[in-house]
Each structure stands twice: as C-alpha cells, then as structure tokens.
Recover the amino acids of this structure.
C-alpha cells in the first residue's frame, strides 16, 4: 500500500473522532488503515468502551482542511461503523499512563484534588473541569481549570451526590448557554456527597459508562490522598 505523502509545510487540524465499531477481529486496523490511506495522521487511539458486539474508540487525527470529507468517508468505510462525534481539538495533550497518574496523585498530597481537576480535562478530552462544594451558604467553586464557566448557584439538584453520574443535555438546572453548546456533563463525588468534580465537554461526546466509572475512581483517589496528607 502506498503511504500518504504529507507536505511538512501544510497546516494540519487535529480532531477527536469517536467511532462505534463492530467488535470483530481486525475492525480497528481496517478503519485506521483507511484513515491513513487518505492522509489522516492518527496520533493516538484509545478504547473507551466494549460491549457484547461493539467497541467505542477515540481517535486523535490530524489532516488538512480539504480532507474532511475523505477522512469521514474513510472512517465509515467498514460496514457497521458509526461516527459518534467528530470535533476539533485546540491543544492536543499527552495522556499519562494509569500508573504514572497514580504516582503523580500520591506525590501531590494535599494538592491531589487540584491535580485531578486539571488532569480530567486531558484524560476525558474535556473543555473544562471544576470542583463544586455545597453548603447552607450556597454552592462555591473550589478548583477550576482555565476557561471554566464562572457560575453562581444557591443550590444544585444533584447535591448530595452519592455516586458518579452524567446529566441530560436539557436538564432544567443547566444554564441556557450550556444547552446551546450541547455540552456533555459528568460529575463524581469527592469524599462526601457535598463536594463534586464536574467535567464538561462542549459539543460532546456524551460520557460513556466506563468514563463515568473512571471519573469516580479518580475523584475517590484524590479525596483519599488529600485526607491522608
């Protein structure tokens, strides 16, 4: 197979491409080869979820602006493949290995929650993340990543938060701007139910069950390390 020729001076845009694939031998390789054949440069592939007969994978792909149609067609070239989301990534990031992440959290000590807040943006390809605390005086923001929304709530209906969860995009408590942005949201309790890590992805994709579970583990580890420190 001829390798695609990429002009080093050409501007390449980076996208998150989430695909739902039939869970059959070779399907991932076929799709990856098809994307590469039309000039898409795949920098990473992550398995998000596996079901009985399907798999959900995140591809980070770079290509020229004139190749959008070719890349989407290539992604769907295998029967049964469906594009769940295709959105630009402004700044691609290095995603740490799970064991490296645990080490970093332990080393962070009392700053573990702040670290998890910022790493959540990378780990979940999110737009922002923040930690909210609920009390009789209202809801306050404890930690926030750059670009996080500045909101003031007297209360939020999901407090006390007992377990990790996601939210419907048209939930009544959501600000109108978040609905317009089709923002996908997930939250996990940090220590007690009155503190929550909230992560948002503008334009999706929705948070899958495995992502919700992972977010919950991260929040729990951060809370545990912070208490012990």
């Amino acid at each position: 197979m001829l390798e695609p020729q990429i002009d080093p001076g050409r501007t390449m845009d980076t996208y998150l491409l989430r695909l739902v694939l039939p869970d059959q031998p070779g399907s991932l390789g076929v799709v990856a080869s098809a994307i590469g054949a039309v000039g898409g440069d795949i920098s990473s592939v992550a398995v998000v979820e596996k079901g009985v007969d399907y798999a959900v994978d995140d591809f980070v792909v770079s290509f020229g602006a004139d190749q959008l149609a070719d890349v989407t067609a290539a992604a769907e070239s295998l029967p049964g493949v469906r594009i769940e989301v295709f959105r630009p990534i402004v700044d691609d990031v290095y995603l740490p290995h799970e064991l490296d992440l645990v080490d970093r959290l332990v080393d962070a000590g009392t700053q573990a929650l702040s670290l998890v807040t910022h790493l959540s943006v990378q780990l979940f390809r999110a737009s922002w993340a923040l930690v909210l605390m609920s009390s009789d005086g209202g809801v306050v923001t404890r930690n926030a990543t750059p670009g996080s929304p500045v909101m003031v709530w007297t209360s939020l209906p999901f407090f006390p938060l007992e377990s990790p969860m996601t939210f419907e995009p048209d939930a009544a408590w959501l600000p109108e701007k978040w609905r317009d942005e089709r923002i996908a949201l997930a939250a996990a309790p940090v220590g007690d139910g009155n503190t929550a890590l909230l992560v948002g992805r503008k334009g999706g994709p929705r948070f899958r069950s495995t992502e919700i579970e992972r977010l919950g583990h991260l929040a729990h580890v951060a809370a545990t390390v912070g208490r012990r420190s």
In short: The domain at 98-228 is CATH 3.30.450.40 (Beta-Lactamase). The beta strands are 13-22, 41-50, 54-63, 82-88, 128-135, 138-144, 165-166, 184-190, 192-201. Residues 5 and 39 are 7 Å apart (CA to CA). The radius of gyration is 19 Å.
